[in-house]
Design a protein that fits this description.
mainly alpha; about 0% strand
Length: about 90
């Protein structure tokens, strides 16, 4: 029997065991209380989403990947032999 994850608009869930010091645990509890998360997993998801929005390079964001895929699919391209020569960079 093969079990497949049910995907409802988000990636399948992965379980992790992590070691946190007391301060890190306190921060997660503060986020949990401040934003009304039902558990620490929700608080960590919120922290990770905020980090992703503010810190990750745009080329790693899913929206950017989708935009590039659409451009490749629908865009108009011109082939050049030497990019530097074609655009006056040499």
């Amino acid at each position: 029997m093969v079990l497949l994850p049910i995907i409802r608009g988000y990636a399948s869930m992965v379980k992790n065991v992590i070691d946190l010091d007391e301060r890190e645990n306190r921060v997660i509890n503060i986020v949990k209380a401040k934003y009304g998360c039902k558990d620490k997993s929700q608080a960590l998801s919120l922290i990770i989403k905020r980090y992703e929005e503010s810190e990750l390079e745009p080329q790693l964001r899913p929206e950017f990947i989708k935009e590039i895929e659409e451009t490749v699919k629908n865009g108009k391209f011109v082939k050049v032999k030497d990019f530097g020569e074609e655009f006056g960079l040499k």
